[in-house]
Hints:
The complex is a heterodimer. Chain A is mainly α. Chain A has 2 domains: 2-31 and 63-247; 261-425, Fumarate Reductase Iron-sulfur Protein, Chain B, domain 2, CATH 1.10.1060. Helix content of chain A is 64%, strand content 0%. Chain A has helices at residues 2-31, 43-55, 64-93, 99-103, 105-133, 138-141, 148-179, 192-195, 206-230, 238-247, 261-271, 296-304, 310-314, 316-319, 326-347, 357-361, 364-368, 375-379, 386-400, 406-418, 431-434. In chain A, helix 5 runs antiparallel to helix 7 (148-179) and helix 12 (296-304) crosses helix 15. The model of chain A has no long low-confidence stretch (mean pLDDT 94). Chain B is an alpha/beta fold. In chain B, 43% of the residues lie in helices and 11% in strands. Chain B has helices at 6-11, 23-28, 30-46, 62-67, 70-86, 97-106, 119-128, 161-168, 205-215, 226-238, 250-257, and strands spanning 18-21, 50-51, 91-94, 115-118, 144-147, 173-175, 220-223, 246-249. In chain B, helix 3 (30-46) crosses helix 11, helix 7 packs across helix 8 and helix 9 (205-215) crosses helix 10 (226-238). The longest helix of chain B has 17 residues, at 30-46. Chains A and B meet through helix 11, helix 14, helix 18, helix 19 and helix 20 of A and helix 2, helix 3, helix 4, helix 5 and helix 6 of B.
Amino acid sequence: MHYIQQTGFVVLSAVAIWLFARKAAAIRRNIFLGKKEDLSDQPAKRWRNLILLALGQKKMFRNPLVAVMHFVIYAGFIIINLEVLEIVLDGLLGTHRLFFPLLGNLYNWLINGFEFLAIGVITVCIIFLCRRNILKLNRFINKELDGWPRSDANYILITEIILMTLFLTMNAADQSLQFIGSEHYHITGNFFFSGMLAPVFNGMKESSLVAIERTCWWLHITGIFAFLNYLPYSKHLHIILAFPNAYYARLEPKGKMKNMPAVQQEVLYAMQPETAPADAPPPAHFGAKDVFELSWKNLLDAYSCTECGRCTAACPANITGKLLSPRKIMMATRDRLEEVGRNIDLNKQFTADGKSLLHNYISVEELRACTTCNACVEECPVSISPLDIITELRRSLIMEESNAPQEWNGTFSNIENNFAPWKFSPADRDKWAQEG
Amino acid sequence: MHVNTMAEMAMNGETPEVLFWVGCAGSFDQRAQKITKAFAGILSRVGIKYAILGKEEACTGDPARRAGNEFLFQMMAYQNIQVLNGYGIQKIVTACPHCFNTLKNEYPELGGHYEVIHHTVLLQQLIDEGRIKMKEEGSFKGKKIVYHDSCYLGRANDIYEAPRKVLEALDAELVEMKRCRSNGLCCGAGGAQMFKEDEPGNKRINIERTDEALVTGASFIASACPFCNTMLSDGVKNREQESGVSVLDIAEMIEASMA
C-alpha cells in the first residue's frame, strides 16, 4: 500500500514539475523576444529594491489596511510552504509527519502557527472575495476585467480557501486518529484550530478517519501542484515574477524617457554631415508597434502584472472617463505576447499574422489620452511601467505612421520653425524683459 | 527691467552665477510671463548675477518627445546643447518643471551636463540662507493656501518638500488636497496634452483637479509649473470661482511678500 502511494506521489510530482518547467521555459522565451536592455548596473540598489518592494511589499503599504491583509496571505503562503516541504518529503519517503520526531515539542508550536496562518488566509480570502464581488470596488469592476480576468481572481481566492480547509481538515482527522491511538499517527499534542473541527469526526471508525486524512492529504498536495501549473496562465504569476521585476526596476528618475541613440545619430549626421559614415544603415524601426520592439523588461512587466488596478484607479485620464487604462495596457501586452508565443509553438518561428500590439490590442485613442504623469508607475506595487509601453507605441505612431492629431502637427511645426509650441516669433522670446 | 542675455555677458567677458532658463510658456504665455517677471525680480533683488539666453533659447523638445516625435526632440536638444555648451553654462535654474526634467535628466546623455535646479528649490535655499526676507505682515499671512504638486516636479523628480517649505515662509495656513505628493493628480497638461483637445471622456482633468482644490476652501492655489497654472486657472474660471480663489505661482507669492 505504502509503495503504491509513494510511487503515485513521485509520478504526480514529476509530471507537475515537468509541466510547470515547460511552461516557464516558454514564458522565458517569450520575454526574451523583447529587445535587449542592460539593467544589470548598481546591483546593491537592485537588491535593496528586491528586498523592500518584493519581499517587504513596501508599495502595498500606501494603503495600510489592505497591505496587512495582503501580507497575511503572502506570509501564510510562504511560511506554510515549510509544511508543504514536510508533506512532499513524507510523500517521497512514505513517512508520516517526518519532522515530528526531529522537532519534538517545537513541532506542535509550528503546526499551531501554520494553522493560525491558515485561518488568517481563509479570513482574508473571504474578505477579498467580498471586496471583489459584493462591495464591487471600482478597480475590480472595470470592463477590462470582464470574463476571464474576473474569474481568474475569484478562482485564485477560492483555491486558497480550499487548500487551507483541506490542510485544517487533514489535521483534524489526524488528531482524531491520535486520540483513538491509531498506529502510524504520532501523538503531536493538541492543534488549537483544527482541534475545534475534531468533534465532527467523533465516533467515526478508524478506517474512515484514515480515509479522510489521506484524502485531504492527497487533495491538498494535488491542489498545490495544480495551482503551480495554473500560475503561468494566471495573473497570480506575480507571486514569482514580482521578485525579478523589482530587481530589474528602473533606477533613474521617473521623468526620464528612454533615449533613442539611432535617432540621436541621425540628427547628428544631419547637423554635422561630415560626421556621417557613408554606409550608416537607417534604423530598422522607430518606437514599438509590436511586442518584439518593446524591451524585455516591458514584457516581464506584462507577465508580472496581477491586474490589481491601482494604476488605473490613479490614472487622471481613466478617472475622467477616457478610454485609457494603464492596467489594460499591461493586459493587452501579455495577451499579445501569449498569442505570439502560441504562433511560435505552432510554426517553429513567428509567422506574420497581420496583427500587432498597436491597433489590434491597444488603440490610438487610448495612447492619445496619456498625460505621462507617472501616477500609474508610482502606484504599481511590483515596479511595472505602463508609461514606458505607452510612450514607445506613441513613437511608432508618430514616426512610423505620421499619425498625429492635427493640433500636434501644428505644435511640431511651431517647435521646428518658431522654437516654441505656439506660433510666436522667436524674436519676441525675451520681449517680456523689455516690458518691465 | 533689464535682464542680461548670455550674449551680452559673454561680450563683456562676464559669467553669470546661474542661467535662468525661461522656457516657452514663461517667454510667450501672458499669464506665465508674470511668473517669469516675478522670479527675475526676486533674483535681481537678492543680488544674484544671472542671465537668460534670450532669442537663443528654444523649446527643450519635451512636448515633442512625449508626443512621440523623437526626431524633433533630438533636433531641439542638439541645438540647445550647442548653445549652452558654447557659453560654458554650468548651472541652470528654471521655473518650468518640464524644462527642468528635460535639462536635468535627458540632456546629459546627449552631451549636455549642467547642474539644473527648479526655482522652488532655489527659493527654498535663498530663504534658508536668509537672503530672502519676508514682510512682517505679508498679504498671505493667515490665508488658506493649497499646493498642487506638478507631476514633473513630484513623481518625475521626487521634489515634494521644497515648494511646501517655501510656502511655509508665507506664514499662511497650508492645507492639502486629498490626492497630494506622490498621489497628486495631474492637471491634465503633461505629455503634450496642453497642445491638443482632450480625448472623449466625461470630465476634463483640470476640472477634476480644480474641484479637489476648491473643496479645501483655500483662497489661493499655489502652483510651481506654468502649465499647471494655466490648467487650474481655467478650472477656477470654469467653476466661476475667480472672485474668491486665485491661482498663483510660488515665485509670485514670494515676490509679493518680500521685505
